[in-house]
Fold each of these.
Amino acid sequence: MDEEQRETIRALPKVELHLHLEGAAPPAFIRGIAQEKSVRLDNVFREDGAYAYRDFVHFLSVYEAATSVLKSPQDYARLTRAVLEESAASGVIYSETFLSPDFCGGGDTGAWKEYLHAMMEVAEEAERDMGITLRGIVTCIRHFGPEKAKRAALCAAETAGNWLVGFGMAGDENKGKQRDFAYSFDMAREAGLRLTSHAGEWRGPREVREAIEDLRVERIGHGVRAIEDLALVDMLVEKGIVLEVCPGSNVTLGVYPKMSAHPVEKLRERGVRITVSTDDPPFFHTTMADEYEALARTFGWDAEMFRSLARTSAEAAFCDETTRSALLKRLETA
Ligand code: HPA
Ligand code: ZN
């Protein structure tokens, strides 16, 4: 790929639907906050300054250690700005980010509202200054268990609206079952929130089926291992379930050994509604522009494919219809 092609890809307007806010924190940002607060962060960074982790479960614990330095709504406001700057630099014009009341006020609804308002304020500024629109999806954390999830769901339900648009589940897919969290997903649905859950990244296709049947989600975080059950793939197509695919994350964490072994192209060819995101970009040494570049290089995706991808993503976004129309128009005229 030459420099001109690379520039064209970088400039394409992008829509990202699967981004963990803390996981998008540049390591230098976390180091800076730790220094300001004189907090020692052991075993979080490599010698070269990048995040240090061995595997997925260790990644989750390093993620939580890095996040532990963020202790106030102001910290999260600064984080939101740093993350939006990175996204905008990759050509992202609309982004949905996962937010966890467990990290923002420990599940307390009053504290959560303060964190949320601080982030919304920055998002509003960024929309004005950088032309990037942000919306939030509250996520419960699977390995924290169903009781904490209920508190996250209550936080989500109490703040559901045009900005806080969804509810989901992240965390360790190998702990418990999707249906253990049905109460929380029901509460969120009743509050008008749209639903997504991480499934089919570490566990197989059955997990994806359970997220759809037991939690009634309309999007799946990852979901890529659905490819191991073609009847399930047909069901995804039939129901119009959207996959939030994070190819770079999957390759870096070893779900697939290399990009050419990733099923995103097969899923797309079979008619599954595919979107592309970064997950936790600095942890996985990626950006939205990098993801696009890898897909162009590996599967020959061209500008027309990426335009269609962005349209699918805008259609699958959890925002209100006014925001969606504006977004689709921006994509059309770009
Ligand atoms: N996967 C699951 N849980 C997470 C992740 C992730 O990439 N990032 C933060 N929590
Ligand atoms: Zn994720």
Amino acid sequence: MKRILVTGGAGFIGSAFVRWQLKHYPDVHIVNLDKLTYAGNQENVADVDAARHTFIQGDIADREVMLQAMEGCDAVVNFAAETHVDRSIAGATEFLRTNVDGVYNLAECAKETGLSRVLFVSTDEVYGSIAEGSFTETSPLTPRNPYSAAKAGGELVGMSYFHTFDLPVIITRGSNTYGPYQYPEKVLPLFTTNAIDDEPLPLYKGGEHNVRDWLYVDDHASGIDCALRNGVPGEVYNVAGGNERENIELTRKILALTGKDESLIKWVPDRPGHDRRYSISADKLKALGWQPAMPWEQGMEETVQWYQENETWWRKIKSGEFRAYYEKQYATLKG
Ligand code: NAD
Ligand code: DAU
């Protein structure tokens, strides 16, 4: 593959994927199309080789822009999405527009351009919650919040283009991802940056024993790359971190790594419909040669250290649009 269109490549995982491609494939050129929503940030790709990276500000739901961006590309990998569950509970319009309509437009455009691979990045949340054991790629989809329902809808539309039009579609479903450059609305960067500032860590009361499976961002990028290059069109591949942790354990780890104590924990009302546990098996992707490389302890140490050393990156975000969102979302923190 010589030229890959990455959509949503100015976000958290998309930017890691762009860096991964440029680092591991010296001949590859990346066309990075991103709408630059509140979560998109060109600083996330500021350090990449500009000669091998073309940035386009655009919307995956825009037909003309997408057709133009696809010209000369071998593949498209879609990261573009509205991604925060709590925002989808507050209002899901943009989630349906991008995660379903946007994906539909992308598939339509891809059908006209003869790409050799069309990879849709999806999430383990489409399976819903599981009390014991782990979901496999053949498990039914039972998403339980507007974000995951929209992601499932997009997936189904995308895969229908494989069955109906022979579009070479591959889908990946990743678990909770952590690492540098994550927008600080998500629990790990939110709690880390709050702890650095001695601000309360708003833990959802009743959800402290809920479990997420943590996947280091570069391992997510390498998993998607493995599915893209070694995967079979029409197939779905889970990408799992293999690090299941309760939220309370994650919170304590962040407090320990930032040298703060548990008095910073503040209980706030639980997320409606809060999924209890996510767990997926990545055996199918591992059979293609993928393995996560980052051990949990090291990943957490390096990630917390990154936020400690890159305050200018997140302080700029936290002083902008984020402020109004935070005050509304966590109104009960004021007492
Ligand atoms: P993010 O919110 O950090 O980034 C999303 C990016 O998409 C932003 O740069 C944003 O500007 C862009 N975008 C949004 N709407 C767009 C549109 N209409 N057109 C073009 N660009 C648009 O998200 P992330 O955490 O990096 O997630 C990337 C993908 O991975 C998403 O599809 C998400 O569903 C999936 N995923 C995320 C996780 C996780 O834990 N973060 C886990 C599994 C799967
Ligand atoms: O599983 C993959 C998914 O992981 C991705 O598809 C989503 O895009 C991504 O946002 C993430 O979803 P979660 O809802 O699991 O992530 P979040 O960081 O929002 O929350 C993780 C856990 O922490 C969850 O159980 C809720 C809890 N939490 C979260 C926040 C933001 C709190 O207790 N307090 C908080 O303030």
Amino acid sequence: MDIGFLKMNEFTIQLNKLLNVFFLEVGIVSLTLVILFFLGQSIGHSWLLFSFGLGLYIFWHLYHLLQLLKSLSSQQILQASIKFGIWKEIWIQLQLFQQNRHSQKNDLITDLDNYRIFINNIPDAVIIINSKPNEQKTIIEWFNKSAQSTFNLKKKKHIGCHINDIFTELADYNFSTSKNNKKRITIHSPTDQNKIYSLRVTPYHKSFKLLLFRDISRIYWVNKMRKNFIANVSHELRTPLTVISGYLETFETHFKKDKKYLPAIQSMKQQSLRMNHLIQDLLVLSKLESDTGKLKKKKLIDVPEIIGSIIKDTQMLTDNKYQIEANIDNSLMLLGYENEIQSMVSNLINNAIRYTPAGSTIKIAWYSENKNIFFSVNDNGEGIEKQHLQHLTERFYRVDKGRSRSEGGTGLGLSIVKHILNHHNAKLKIKSQIGKGSQFICCFNK
Ligand code: ADP
């Protein structure tokens, strides 16, 4: 057997060989007893001689059994004291078995040492904890050298400590129920608040769990700076844009009949409107990104009402040019964030309208199936080629940039939808066929 480092040489007692020797011995002894019996006839004591031989044989077995038991109980290396018969074979087999166990034990010790050296040399901090399901405390069992230096841990002081005493941020985390999930937890170092770690919890044996900490401070702070920068720029651009839009409105009324300037003013107005949408979407996105969803409390939302009112607005704005078929389960509510769900529904319905020619049918559904709740928007528009599908939720990814811009798109809608779904532990599935249409399905847990 070879499991990674673990090499185990299997050894089995060779029963066939033992039986062969045993039967040979029984044959020789039987023959000797028969000879003794006949020899005894000549002196008139055949049974006596026979019984004497048999007794001697039984005594011989009992003696060796006793020797073996003595040797086994002494837990020392077995040493055969006999050079023939079944007992010689038993001793040889047991000696081989003992040697094999010994080398297995040595292999295991070497492997264990290798593991220890290996884990000790991992540059990331590793902590092993024990969290028994019916016990409140999660105890630190072991940590590597990197954990010692990173979190200032001391073997004598911290082994046996409650993990939450060191990482207070993990107070709400239930280690005893955590399964092997790929989700990482972002935490601050208890010794330095500027150091950020991505923690992964991996259960590996009964109630034991391996905590692996990866230093993500650089990425974290760069990302934070980027998010803040986008949020600040978007925010700062709002005021000048409002002023420009205001003046453009005035100019438009002033130059109403002027064919020379009016088209330029209207084009500027359209572009400032686009910029306004872009800024709004950027602000929504940076708010969604900075909001981890932990601060707000989820509420029971009347999603059917939200869908109904967005459909009504859409029909009004599009002059009923689209046939909207709604299949809504009116009794189905969702625990979540109302504004975000409203934004998700409106983004997906707007996209269906934007990328589908007038007169088409758009099917909207809100239903539950098995343990999930679904919101789906189905259109019979132009469809999306397969290679684009995985990129659609990236910021500013557009299949046809010109088309998106001319329809008033910002390239941020599906990115916003993805973030909203992340906040709700939900998933987005996109199916599409060129010439047949697209389907956007949001899958929530019940
Ligand atoms: P945009 O503001 O450009 O619509 P989105 O993030 O909402 O940005 O969508 C990204 C891209 O996905 C769009 O530019 C478009 O190419 C494609 N797309 C989204 N929805 C549809 C749809 N229902 N049918 C066809 N293409 C779509």
Amino acid sequence: MTESLAGPPRASGVATYDYSLFGDVEVAPFSKIRKAIAERTSASWSSVPQVTQYDMIDITALEKRRAALSAEKKTKLTLLPLIMKASVEALKDHPPLNASLDPSGDALILKKYYNIGFAVDTPIGLLVPVVHNADRLDLTGLSSWLLELAEKARSGRLAFADAEGGSFTVTSLGRLGGYGFSPIVNAPEVAVLGIGRAEDQAVVRNGEIVVRLMLPVSLTYDHRVVDGAQGGRFLETFQDRLSDLAKEDTVEV
Ligand code: CAO
């Protein structure tokens, strides 16, 4: 189908033109959910000054522990519950990342609850269910909630209540993640943690080149609230809490 797309500049402010002047085009509908994603991401992008910090975390020991826990519990434990647990523990030490800026600009609302949103890739587009009170859940509980909410999101059964009240978001592209990406803050939250694809890499330890499983992470935050030093300290704590989880008997499963 050839159809003119000429019209006035869209809300984005980017001028458009008649693309069909240059070849055949097809006009596909832009779904309701894509419009909602467009609105949320555009609002965040245009109103939040955001910075992304990257790191590589050695998860060799954590991966062994994950495999052992999965075998012990006779259930598949993915990396995400461990990431979520470590995020909650790191947020407790860095309250401004679990906050929202008051619209007046005069106050920061520090949340005493840990409601962690997580991005789910669904047939209709990106949805972000929220694990409420994630700090009260052990790894098994986190894993069950993640599975249940991801399934609800994918099957179109996610209720409004399942996706509201988030205080921090984790977005894991897992195996699809590539080397890294810059997530957009899920405003009015202040920070979002991106997880890339873990891969064996040659790294230097004690002067020797060894193979370790390295996880790329990216933390994006609202620079009005969080400075680079605090972002760096958060990532350090997050890494420490992940190391804690790799040790036996350090956490309730
Ligand atoms: N690196 C390498 N492998 C990873 C990984 C990582 N960072 N994270 C997960 N994996 C592995 C898992 O261990 C699992 O491997 P096995 O089958 O061998 O055990 C496999 O990838 C599949 O994991 P999963 O996707 O089923 O489970 P999960 O808990 O890691 O993730 C969910 C759940 C809902 C986050 C995920 O399915 C999903 O939808 N991700 C996409 C989110 C997204 O679109 N983000 C972008 C938002 S911005 O546009």
